[in-house]
DNA sequence: GTGAAAGCGCTAACAG
DNA sequence: CTGTTAGCGCTTTCAC
């Protein structure tokens, strides 16, 4: 078929208008190549390459350059990326692996990464790993692009073996900074975020705390549990109940129901590992006839748009997702340039809204 | 620099171990090529290509094939995609252009498209257009991959001129089926969805309806307004108020406040162009001391996870996003195969939940 | 200041 | 059954 296409596209190489013409079976115009442009402009193909690559200063005369640009415009010339990539051996493209698309955190992460990449003339291809935080199967099958490097966010440490096999530089985001062979790491100060939540609740007089934890085995959630325990250490408060849930509203609601109706004293506050879980907790409260925040305080984590879609709005921890994406991409660029990459931990901040209030009397 | 790399990687072409070795400035292993594999297996480079491409049956003996596979594994050989793409003239990669990443609809769209693509051995690269539904600036700068085709969802008709310039086959999703030069179109029966909403509310006795419309100039929202007017035509009910809002919760809340506090009789039901707007409407109601659904019924559109994150859960219109993505990708595959693509319109369905109820007695 | 030429790594036709 | 060969379109020396 490729041969057929050549036949049709180049059969009249030495006469008649070569372009536009029909290529293959669907009526798509055969793309002009730099040789076509050269011919049209009456220059050599190399000159076209020089001009199009903005490398002509002092090598090609101004009128010639202008002629080339004109011919290129005329023919609708667009350089063939496959050829350029092959020749250059690099693609100026990075892959961003995320466990989910649905989550606004990752959308913002992408935005930041794409911005930083653009500054370096690099593109970003998103790969939502089908297995969530678990093993990421061959992203090269999906994002078929040849890649210069990979950034992965919030994945389990061993989820990236397939990807690492590609031998590409890897930057890990929101992941265990210890147990990793990534070239660089960018993290959030998750522990501090949880400390802030705990202090906030402590200050409001809460002593019996329930923890709605994400039932996902990844660094970011392990840190949350540990930090919460740390923060409560030596205070009058304690986690009286921990319930695990998948990261969605329904699972969060059921976990919160368990936490609120289980044996023992009822928690006056529910700390949730994510805003989605917190939304579920709010639903659970309402169904149990508890008012938020009067009877029950609820905190989230992430500050997704969901946090302000609810009423009352969620007290939660704001994660600088875009900054993480930017820092991650910059780290990758540094690695690609052979510069040493330092490990970063970005600050996070509690956003106090209406879902938390003073602990109910007693 | 590229020259340097070649030097380092291939300087000892005729002696010593060629692989692994150091390439460029960062310590990444130079990738083995099919020639390296051929040398290691003691066969010609073409044979390697045949074996790796699963095209060896009846052309290469079993032992030879096994030797090649062994050598490839040994060397960690991965075919160079840039080279393959250049040679084949196609990349088996499609671009999916969406106006937003944050929206679960588009996440599901991607899932469906990726599944259908995988069946054809095709990859999907996601391009979240920075300008939302507006003009999509050069996605080729971002997704640097060479592409075989483009699928665009919910974009303004003239937002794709840059993309179309690439001369690639284009399939449009959730877009005006008339005013388009796309090779194929896949749509949702949005009008029917709005009709269902109207009938539902009519049946509950609502006569004064407010419309919280998306202030976005795209087909999908124009249809909603028109269909609503159609559906109410000749009934006892009418749209007493229309307010426009950007597609987020806050804007939705403000628009709903305007609709509920403006002059004239207050609507007993608010039809919203999207679940996010409906979430805003619910917040507005609560702030105005109105109970949903007792004092005010609210409907959404899309059936995002947000719809069930709220309490009460939203009555909304479920859009088969994954099916749209699948159909879109299949249409693109058909176009690429030169087959005629038929225009499709997928059915949508009302999901009645707790945010709608009987109209409050006059 | 411009052109000629050498490949990047791969596939597919063709020759043995 | 296996090897040789001719490029895909581009970038980058190197001659002129």
TrEMBL record, chains A, B:
Keywords assigned by UniProt, alphabetized: DNA-binding, Transcription, Transcription regulation
Q: Where is the composition biased (Basic and acidic residues)?
A: 1-16
Source superkingdom: Bacteria
Which residue spans adopt a coiled-coil conformation according to this UniProt entry? none
Gene3D superfamilies noted in UniProt: 3.40.50.2300, lambda repressor-like DNA-binding domains
Transcription regulation as a keyword?
A: yes
From which residue to which does the signal peptide run?
Answer: none
Stretch list, region Disordered: 1-33
Locate the HTH lacI-type domain: which residues?
32-88
InterPro entries xrefs:
HTH_LacI, LacI/GalR-like_sensor, Lambda_DNA-bd_dom_sf, Peripla_BP_I
Q: Which CDD domains did the record assign?
A: HTH_LacI, PBP1_LacI_sugar_binding-like
Give the GO molecular function terms.
DNA-binding transcription factor activity; transcription cis-regulatory region binding
Protein name in the entry: LacI family transcriptional regulator
Q: Which organism is it from?
A: Streptomyces cinnamoneus (Streptoverticillium cinnamoneum)
């Amino acid at each position: 078929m490729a041969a057929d296409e050549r036949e049709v596209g180049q059969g009249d190489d030495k006469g008649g208008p070569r372009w536009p013409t029909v290529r293959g079976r669907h009526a798509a115009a055969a793309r002009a190549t730099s040789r076509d442009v050269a011919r049209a402009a009456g220059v050599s193909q190399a000159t076209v390459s020089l001009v199009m690559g903005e490398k002509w200063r002092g090598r090609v005369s101004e009128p010639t350059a202008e002629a080339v640009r004109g011919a290129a415009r005329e023919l609708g010339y667009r350089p063939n990326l496959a050829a350029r990539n092959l020749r250059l051996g690099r693609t100026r493209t990075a892959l961003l692996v995320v466990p989910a698309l649905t989550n606004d955190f990752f959308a913002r992460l992408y935005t930041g990464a794409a911005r930083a990449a653009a500054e370096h003339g690099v593109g970003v291809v998103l790969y939502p790993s089908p297995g969530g935080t678990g093993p990421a199967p061959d992203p090269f099958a999906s994002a078929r692009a040849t890649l210069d490097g990979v950034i992965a966010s919030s994945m389990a440490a061993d989820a990236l073996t397939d990807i690492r096999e590609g031998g590409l530089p890897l930057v890990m985001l929101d992941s265990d900074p210890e147990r990793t062979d990534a070239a660089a790491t960018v993290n959030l100060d998750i522990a501090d975020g949880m400390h802030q939540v705990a202090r906030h609740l402590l200050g409001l007089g809460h002593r019996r705390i329930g923890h709605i934890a994400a039932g996902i085995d990844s660094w970011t959630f392990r840190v949350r549990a540990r930090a919460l325990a740390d923060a409560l250490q030596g205070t009058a408060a304690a986690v009286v109940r921990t319930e695990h849930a998948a990261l969605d509203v329904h699972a969060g609601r059921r976990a919160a129901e368990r936490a609120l109706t289980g044996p023992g004293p009822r928690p006056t506050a529910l700390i949730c590992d994510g805003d989605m879980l917190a939304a579920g907790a709010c639903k659970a409260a309402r169904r149990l006839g508890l008012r938020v925040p009067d009877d029950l305080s609820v905190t989230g984590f992430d500050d997704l748009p969901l946090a302000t879609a609810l009423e009352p709005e969620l007290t939660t921890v704001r994660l600088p997702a875009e900054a993480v994406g930017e820092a991650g991409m910059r780290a990758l660029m540094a690695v690609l340039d052979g510069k040493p990459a330092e490990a970063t931990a970005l600050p996070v901040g509690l956003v106090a809204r209406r879902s938390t209030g003073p602990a109910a009397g007693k």
